[in-house]
Amino acid sequence: MKVVAPSVVRELDRRTIAAGTPGLVLMERAAAAVAREVMHAILRRPSRGMRVVVVAGTGNNGGDGFEIARLLARLPARWHVEAVLVGDPARVRGEARLTYQRLLQSEVRVVRARSQADLESVHAASLVVDALFGTGLSRPIEAGSLEAMTLEAIAGSRAFVVAVDVPSGLDAGRVTPIGPHVTADVTVSFGHPKPALVGLPAAAACGRVVVADIGLVPLLPEDDEPAPEVLAARDVAPLFPRREAEAHKGDFGRLGLLAGSPGMSGAAVLSAGAALASGAGLVTVLADEAVRSAVHTLLVEAMSSPPDTALTGFAALAAGPGLGASEEARANVRRALSSPLPAVFDADALNAFAGAPEAFRRNPATVLTPHPGEAARLLSTTAAAVNRDREAAALELSRRSSAVVVLKGFRSLVANPGGRVVKVLAGNPSMAKGGSGDVLTGIVGALLARGFSAWDAATAGALLHGLAGDLAREASHEESVIASDLVRALPEAFQAVHESGRSPSVPQDPLATSPAPPPA
User: Fold this and answer.
1) Which residues are CB-neighbours of 36 under 8 A, at least 6 positions away?
2) Residue 211 shares a structural domain with residue 332
């Protein structure tokens, strides 16, 4: 999907309303999307439901907030939900006025903040919904103002923060912060992502980004301004229809995984586990006896064979994680390269051909998944040079290798030899741990084995990988996430992709789309 300026999204809002969808309906859909994310956050850690505070401004973003508070209060859970209106109620207009009046008629306690003393509940919150400002903010918040005090209260609360459309204080149209702003754990953007959610340094304040479909009309050709193309859960949802009732394991492919060596058996376990959790029908680890023993001890669902096993009977191959730099390892990578099967190459499989990305030119579907250091070795340059222009590096590597390339990092890039490049709207610094890349290799290998094209396997794989990292961080803490947490988070990542594909025409009551949470 395209990254668009806030002004374009406002125009899409206008056209959608003119086409017959009431503005109140759009507001209700937006609120329901945020409410679902709040519920999921509390389900991951029930203590977040102890005191949920919706901080609302007087504009349309506040209108979303009023409706979010009302929806959360309707749930059959013992969560404490209250709302704080920052500003004069007389300034609340239009659809926001309607949702405000509905909120006043509910059981939710509504506090009108006139001074810092009225922000006590924000300081004490366990979860904050940030609906203070939306995409219309284009100037810094005035120092010493009530709004500035509110930002300080949110920051001082140490609460889990879910931002509505964009963290308050950011200009949604700029990648550089314009002043003090909220740092969110989750940001729910409506219709299309905005520049602040995509580019650093502003994107670092957005947490996991959810792009919710609220039923806006499509972009017109004249709206298509030059902008980066990004990949969100909604983009890959169509790749995962429900399985046929008569499906069997053979329908989902057999992956041959060349991975592991003495001291690095865990790489094979992580890759194989990720492949199985990504839907591959069968996974066989091709490795020496010591690695195979570790695999069977730690992952009973995987099979194994010696490393020189003929590469027949597989639907796809994955090569590189923990493979080592021995001559035997290099020979097995060369066997994979000469195979007619789709394949993904990572880690030591890439390092074996430093300075020679042309070695990966082959007719079958091929994906490379380097981090900046591995990309630099392939391109005979430095990691610093790769990071100075990540897009150019990804495109050059893809062109020279004739492969689809996933250049890992914050907002990982996927590039193809035809010159297309997309940013992945998922992933976070908690994934900067050994083994994370092995998980990606397993995911992409599984999707290739299931029959995905190289492009679809790379994009869907990179999105699921980043999303699993985001969800693992929300369930734990960014300091403590380890690679096996990503494998355990893949089922929830698939569920999030599935939910993102729901049509906004379906009733968006969160009670109908999420399980009832347990009592806090």
Assistant:
1) 499, 510, 513, 514
2) no
